[in-house]
Write a structure and sequence with these properties.
The chain has 506 residues and is of the alpha/beta class. The protein is 25% helix and 19% strand. It is built from 12 helices and 19 strands. It has an 11-stranded mixed beta sheet with strand order 1-8-7-6-5-9-2-10-11-3-12, sandwiched between helices. A 4-stranded antiparallel beta sheet has the order 14-15-16-19, with helices on one face. Helix 2 crosses helix 8 and helix 6 packs parallel to helix 8. It starts with a helix and ends with a helix.
């Protein structure tokens, strides 16, 4: 009887009350923080650039970026532009819905799941720069985690939304190695954490660098809720960018979830691959096991339980404000993660667990309020164009992606790319991948990034992979391994190679 109950609980989701007795529930931001220093504005409170070509209403802006306008803005009845809530997790792969039941109930029951969504670069800062700019990494220039200032801030979605009259807020992680005392440009309010920690973090709080006690997800959630609540008096449409530490290693769950029971996982075929002779040298040498993958999965799921709590609170706040219908909500991760797949326990590789991400979008007022799935090839390059389209903003900078709101926007392939950077002592060769509707072709190149984060090396092709994703979804058999020239032509490799080259240059 007890085993049956446990099985039923595991099937239904996390037991929110079955936590360690006496575990402390940390209330974020209630203690008086230690102020380290105050910093001047470096863009966050600067006047907006000229508005792009859109029918945006005139708005009254605050003299300071740290608070609402002194005179409440009354949105004209004709202004039906949506609010935009963007929630971005860190290192969250697919197959994590167990920890996000309320998120799935909300955005799955009242929204669209994009089942073929990808990170265009499976590394934190390049991926986030792609999200903000709608550009591939080879265009925006942030190729590793150490050079965040490479991003052209004029090309960001927050700049264009703010110029169009949106109130903008950033809460959580921005870009790796962003100087903590430097304000993030084009946000009216922010609580930026760098370096990012799960507990008792170091934040730039609207221009003041200080320590704030509490759990990262809860701290940034509470500040985002306060930002949303200001729409009671400031009726401008708003854009909230909420970026959690979860589910990045080293995983530290909220104390009340530290020992929550997680359903068992028996792995997938890619975890048990023993013959890796058809893989590049670094996966061949990888030796991570199912047990290590299971342990990582457990740690990640426990941190995501707090994200699910935050999503519940966002939903309830929007409902209380009467804004649930006309808020576009998008939930995704900056990239995936391998749980021992091909012996790998990280990101950075061109395999599906590393590249594919959860991706859910809801906007009931636009008709995206029912349960639906969308199987179009989708990438992070599509996020900024989608937000701009929803806001009625004509992009004034080049984009590599397209709006997902237009069902006519489709593609037959997507580019993913990665550069061997200085943080990786063991070579993970630079690679680029052509992801098609039913196939994936990858080339590995000789070269790495310089100390300045610029590509160097001959670019010689060192290794190639081709997988039929229909018959081999776990990428176990590289059909180019030992293939003859005739067999390569039969697979269409010459055309795929040309397509990949064009995507890398385009």
């Amino acid at each position: 009887m007890g085993a049956a109950v446990d099985e039923e609980r595991a099937r239904r989701g996390p037991g929110r009350r079955a936590v360690v007795a006496g575990a402390a529930v940390v209330a974020a931001g209630v203690a008086v923080p230690v102020v380290v220093k105050a910093v001047g504005g470096s863009g966050g409170g600067a006047p907006a650039h000229s508005a792009p070509h859109t029918a945006a209403p005139a708005v009254s802006r605050a003299a300071s970026a740290t608070g609402p306008s002194p005179t409440p803005y009354r949105r004209p009845r004709s202004d039906r532009r949506p609010n935009i809530l963007f929630v971005l997790t860190d290192d969250q792969p697919k197959e994590t819905d167990w920890a996000l039941r309320r998120t799935v109930d909300w955005l799955g029951g009242s929204g669209t799941e994009f089942t073929r969504a990808h990170a265009n670069t499976p590394l934190c800062a390049p991926s986030r720069a792609t999200i903000m700019s709608g550009r591939y990494a080879h265009h925006h220039g942030v190729l590793d985690t150490r050079h965040p200032t490479r991003l052209d801030q004029h090309a960001t979605v927050q700049r264009q939304l703010r110029a169009a009259g949106y109130r903008t807020g950033l809460f959580g992680k921005y870009l790796n190695y962003w100087p903590t005392a430097t304000n993030p440009p084009h946000f009216d309010e922010w609580l930026l954490q760098e370096p990012v920690a799960y507990y008792n973090g170091h934040y730039n709080d609207n221009g003041t660098v200080r320590n704030i006690p509490g759990y990262n997800t809860t701290v940034i959630k509470d500040r985002a809720l306060a930002f949303l609540d200001k729409s009671r008096t400031d009726e401008r449409p708003w854009f909230a960018y909420v970026a959690t530490r979860a589910a990045h290693e080293v995983n530290i769950p909220e104390r009340r979830y530290a020992h929550t029971r997680v359903p068992d996982w028996e792995g997938r075929p890619s975890v048990f691959e023993t013959d890796k002779a058809d893989k590049p040298p670094f996966p061949r040498a990888a030796k991570h096991t199912l047990a290590q993958g299971k342990a990582l999965r457990t740690r990640q799921l426990r941190t995501l339980l707090s994200v699910d709590d935050a999503m519940r609170d966002f939903h309830d706040k929007l409902r209380a404000l009467g804004q649930l219908e006309n808020t576009l909500v998008l939930f995704t991760s900056d990239h995936g993660l391998c749980w021992g797949d091909h012996g790998w326990l990280r990101k950075s590789v061109p395999y599906r667990p590393s590249l594919e991400v959860p991706f859910r979008l809801s906007w009931p007022a636009r008709g995206l309020g029912g349960t639906a799935t969308d199987e179009r090839l989708t990438g992070h390059v599509d996020i900024a164009p989608t937000f701009l389209d929803a806001a009625g903003v004509t992009p004034d900078t080049p984009l590599d992606g397209h709006s997902l709101l237009d069902r006519g926007n489709d593609r037959d392939h997507l580019l993913a790319e990665w550069w061997w950077n200085r943080q990786d002592q063991q070579p993970i060769h630079t690679w680029a991948s052509y992801i098609g509707r039913s196939e994936q072709y990858t080339e590995y190149y000789r070269g790495r990034l310089s100390e300045q984060g610029r590509p160097e090396g001959s670019g010689q092709v060192l290794f190639r992979e081709y997988y039929d994703l229909h018959t081999d979804p776990h990428q176990l058999t590289n059909l180019l391994h030992g293939a003859s020239a005739t067999e390569e032509r039969g697979l269409g490799i010459p055309g795929l190679a040309r397509g990949l080259a064009a995507a890398r240059k385009g």
